[in-house]
Specification:
Length: 381
């Protein structure tokens, strides 16, 4: 198991031409949703190791408005670690979820979409067969994207949370099968242009030399350990606290190849943005929300003491208590501690006491990339 790193570390991002960002499923034929203009609708689907999730949205000014959404825990990566293959039952669950997505796309008459698969399909030997089967049975054409594109789009989704004073930015995205880290130097970008510069990353190329006015990607890494895969490595450890500690230290060992890992120097104007179900669950638990509220979670800033307090509470609850805790939820309780172990390792490594919480990720990045590529967003200079 080797973390993936870019060919061009110590790179800067320049926008030498946009990438194609349009997926090509069969055109939807069902009637459009009453009152909607399907020509302005975009869809983004993220098929990960754990979940199948989709957003349908329309551009509004410099942002977008969600029209419809879907999320289902399909656990596509179940059994992948031991067999190297996608298994029958997880594929069946995933196909059923994709049929629901297809129905929603048809209902709204969506034509512009990007449908992607990530770590489980990158790793499975039979993923190409599964993608062909999904197309045959649902009409949806999924693209298996690289870890680099996944990391880049996660960064794009967080653009609006980048503070104008931020000069060093670390974006962390904890997934089901992998964790992406991107360290970006924004010191050469004017403060008022930093958010738009991050937004432009979806269409850029990594270059070896920094370029004035562009984000400098110091390094990025895709660690093939997420909430599902890390849990699988230590499932035979019975003691809850011992398993958590082992997972956290094991994850940290995988960061050795990441260039900024050894840089313990406190950085001026350093911001960490974390995006994942683990991080938003920790934030919701900290806020004591009885019902999840994205408006309260997205953009919340937590310090390391607050993060540690929530994670210690999870440990004190034990497996039974976590299963019964409504803040965690029945879809996440078996994997919250592996995600928390990753988060603990990351907060332990870098010289920061604060983290911005992002309830957004690959789907939002896919939507921004499509809308920006079409010129559908009103991005202020």
């Amino acid at each position: 198991m080797t973390p993936e790193r870019p060919a061009g570390a110590d790179a800067s991002l320049t926008d030498f031409g946009a990438q194609a960002v349009t997926a090509h499923p069969k055109p939807a034929k069902a009637p459009r949703h009453p009152g909607s203009d399907a020509s302005q609708l975009y869809a983004a689907l993220d098929l990960g190791t754990n979940s199948c999730r989709m957003l349908i949205a329309r551009p509004v000014g410099g942002h977008f408005e969600v029209v419809d959404s879907f999320s289902k825990a399909v656990e596509l990566g179940t059994g992948l670690k031991t067999s190297g293959l996608l298994s029958h039952r997880p594929m069946q669950r995933t196909l059923q979820a994709l049929r629901i997505c297809r129905s929603k796309l048809e209902h709204h008459g969506v034509r512009k979409m990007r449908l992607v698969a990530t770590e489980a399909c990158r790793r499975a030997r039979n993923s190409r067969d599964f993608i062909r089967r999904a197309h045959r049975e649902t009409g949806l054409q999924l693209d298996i994207i690289t870890a680099e594109e996944e990391a880049r789009l996660a960064v794009v989704s967080c653009a609006s949370l980048v503070a104008p004073e931020t000069e060093q930015l670390l974006v962390i995205d904890i997934g089901g099968g992998s964790t992406e880290l991107v360290w970006i130097d924004l010191a050469n970008v004017a403060p008022e242009k930093r958010r738009n510069a991050i937004m432009s990353m979806h269409r850029g190329k990594f270059m070896r030399a920094p370029a004035a006015g562009h984000p400098h990607v110091v390094d990025w890494i895709s660690v093939p350990l997420g909430v599902a895969t890390l849990k699988d490595y230590f499932r035979e450890v019975d003691d809850d606290a011992a398993r958590f500690a082992l997972m956290s230290w094991y994850f940290e060992e995988q960061l050795e190849a990441f260039a900024p890992y050894k840089d313990a120097t406190p950085h001026r104007a350093f911001q960490v943005i974390g995006t994942s179900g683990t991080i938003t669950t920790v934030a919701a638990s900290y806020l004591r929300l009885k019902r999840y509220d994205r408006n309260k979670v997205d953009g919340l800033v937590m310090n390391s003491e607050q993060v540690d307090s929530v994670i210690r509470e999870y440990l004190a609850l034990g497996p039974i208590g976590r299963r019964q805790d409504p803040r965690i939820g029945r879809d996440r309780h078996t994997q919250i501690m592996s995600g928390a172990a990753i988060l603990t390792a990351l907060m332990r490594v870098w010289p920061t006491e604060r983290m911005s919480v992002a309830d957004r990720g690959l789907r939002e990045g896919l939507l921004f990339a499509q809308m920006s590529g079409d010129g559908a967003l009103d991005l202020k200079p």
